[in-house]
Amino acid sequence: MWFIVRAAFAAVILLGLLPRISTAQESVFFVGVIGGSVQLSGDPTTIVTPTGFATSGYKPETGLAVSAFVGRHIREYVTLQANYTWNRNDVGFFAAKGTATESLFFEQPHSTSHHTFIADVLVYFRERSSRIRPYLSGGLGFLRLSAEMQPGLIDGGLRRSPAMFTTIDITSRVAVGVDVPVGEGWSVRYSFSENLGPNPLSRQLEPQGVRGLMNFQNLVGVMRAF
């Protein structure tokens, strides 16, 4: 997966070295679709007392993401953008509790689906006539996360996480990327972004974790100005 992402990024840069076909300076609106890989942060927690211990966490797997967006160039270097992103990640919950006389545990695989809606402001570092236009963006929105248990439960007597749950939380996003015009209003976009918000996964565990949920995305795709 990472080889594909690196190859896609290299292709974007190479496209920027080709001669421009059309500047399409009159175009102020655009739409696009990008996709790629996504990774979630973990949040293991351990509590040790004189009478025992308790630990919990989850193991996230690399998943796939697809993002659709629409935007408007309001200045030469400033753009407003609205995004919808879907990503899917498998997550393995685990927890254990032990005393001098008893040990309890469980492992529980889930499939999680993330629906994120973000409003962004993009700041470009080069004018719209450039062959390569790097940008920095930041935005705010909300995340709807749903999870469903998958086969593979290991039941060691400890209270398990819910088999299914859905949460909605506020989330923020920062991203860096590059747009490469390729002619006739079309451009190729590469984006690396990080979403950060409350952690609905850790809330399902006992003891609960203390870190927020970070969502790292490497995405590449196309956009069309009109």
Question: Overview of this structure, please?
Answer:
This protein has 226 residues and is mainly β. The chain has a single domain (2-225), classed as Porin (Beta Barrel), CATH 2.40.160.20. The protein has one helix at 2-16, and strands at 29-40, 45-49, 52-60, 63-73, 78-99, 103-124, 133-149, 154-156, 164-183, 186-197, 213-225. The protein is elongated. The two termini are 33 Å apart.
- Which architecture per CATH? Beta Barrel
Which band does the percent of strand residues land in? over 45%
What is the molecular shape? elongated
Which CATH first-tier class would you pick? Mainly Beta
The profile of the biggest β sheet is: 8 strands, antiparallel, barrel
Going across the major beta sheet, what is the strand order?
1-4-5-6-7-9-10-11
Structural class: mainly beta
Name the helix and strand elements from N-terminus to C-terminus, one letter apiece. Answer: HEEEEEEEEEEE
Supply the number of helical segments.
1
Q: Any idea what the radius of gyration is? A: 21 Å
Summed over residues and divided by their number, the pLDDT gives a mean of 89
Q: How many strands appear in the DSSP assignment?
A: 11
Number of domains: 1
Helix content: under 10%
Look up the CATH topology.
Porin
Give the termini distance in whole angstroms.
Answer: 33 Å
Stretches with pLDDT under 50, minimum 5 residues: 1-25
Short description:
The protein has 226 residues and is mostly beta strands. The chain is 7% helix and 65% strand. It has a single domain, classed as Beta Barrel (Porin), CATH 2.40.160.
